[in-house]
Sequence to fold (81 residues):
Amino acid sequence: MSDLTVEMHTLKCDWTGCEEAASNDEYCCWNDYNQAVDAFAGFEGGGWYHDWDSGKDYCPSHWHWNEETEEQEIGPREVQR
Fold:
């Protein structure tokens, strides 16, 4: 039997201490990084956020939508007390 090694890509959360990697019920990796970004952080993606300025990726637990500024923000949503 022969082995074949294929380089594939997915997203890993860049939040310090988070080990979350992107996958869904069907796929966990793509031929190139941009396909993975489109699949998980795209308009109809899996809730991930890709910061185009830094190139970092954040799982759904580590970014939120700021309703006041109408912008995506890195970090968990702060709980209002």
